[in-house]
């Protein structure tokens, strides 16, 4: 039996708050037992709501409708052959006015796409068995026989007579230059610059045939839809 005053105070505090501690301990025990049962019921309800979810996830996608189109493949999933080059134009054979030439592309191993067919020969040379191929296109420059050096020479030496414009298929401007002696020299000088920079092309919008291999001029027009980006200084 304790007779110290401080010990009596501690015993009184324990007797006062012991019911509250007992209720808190009981509440915690009930919560710990309720959590596993709730998780088990949630898992059972989810499995009941979607009984085929696991089967669908493991189901192999072999239907034709799930295959991608051949033009939706990413680079690295196929290998295309080089187009045949026409020595006279130095461009791809069968280049269309839209600027595309047909090429044969071989799919990587174990890949298929909508529109593929059995390759006649292996392009990569690495496949032990015949692989799958598809027909694709590559960019090219459509030409119609107009020589670049001929257009420049005509513009420099006979541009005041309009022969350069006649050669490129602009008869109206050629006649105007003929009767005004090259627009009093102004149109003559202007056409020399425009044709040399390939800004003025043949009237059918074909590209020039260049007699040498080298860099070609490509115009990138700007419009209201053009997005310009630049760094900050």
From TrEMBL:
Q: Tell me which UniProt keywords the record has, alphabetically.
A: Glycoprotein, Membrane, Signal, Transmembrane, Transmembrane helix
Major localization listed first in the record, in broad terms: membrane
Q: Does the keyword Nucleus apply?
A: no
Where in or outside the cell?
A: Membrane
Q: Where is this region: Disordered?
A: 41-68
**Amino acid composition bias (Low complexity), ranges on this chain:** 41-63
Task: Kindly give the InterPro entries that the UniProt entry links to this protein.
Answer: TM2, TM2D1-3-like
- Which residue intervals define the domain TM2 in the entry? 145-193
GO CC terms, sorted: membrane
Q: Write the signal peptide boundaries.
A: 1-40
Q: What Pfam families would the database entry show?
A: TM2
> What topology does the record note for this protein and the membrane?
Multi-pass membrane protein
Can the keyword Glycosyltransferase be found in this entry's annotation? no
Family label: Belongs to the TM2 family.
- Name recorded for this polypeptide: TM2 domain-containing protein
């Amino acid at each position: 039996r304790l007779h110290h005053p401080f010990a009596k105070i501690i015993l009184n505090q324990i007797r006062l708050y012991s019911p509250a501690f007992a209720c808190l301990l009981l509440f915690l025990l009930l919560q710990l037992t309720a959590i596993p049962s709730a998780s088990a019921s949630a898992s059972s309800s989810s499995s009941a709501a979607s009984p085929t979810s696991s089967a669908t996830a493991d189901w192999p996608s072999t239907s034709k409708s799930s295959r991608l189109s051949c033009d939706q493949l990413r680079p690295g999933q196929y290998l295309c052959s080089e187009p045949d080059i026409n020595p006279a134009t130095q461009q791809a054979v069968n280049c269309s006015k839209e600027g595309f030439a047909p090429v044969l592309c071989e799919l990587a191993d174990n890949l298929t796409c909508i529109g593929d067919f059995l390759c006649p020969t292996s392009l990569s040379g690495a496949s032990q068995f015949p692989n799958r191929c598809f027909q694709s296109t590559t960019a090219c420059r459509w030409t119609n026989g107009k020589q670049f050096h001929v257009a420049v020479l005509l513009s420099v030496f006979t541009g005041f007579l309009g022969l350069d414009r006649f050669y490129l298929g602009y008869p109206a401007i050629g006649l105007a230059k003929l009767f005004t002696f090259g627009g009093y020299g102004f149109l003559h000088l202007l056409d020399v610059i425009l044709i040399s920079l390939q800004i003025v092309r043949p009237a059918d919008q074909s590209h020039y045939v260049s007699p040498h291999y080298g860099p070609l001029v490509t115009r990138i027009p700007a419009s209201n839809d053009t997005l310009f980006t630049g760094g900050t200084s």
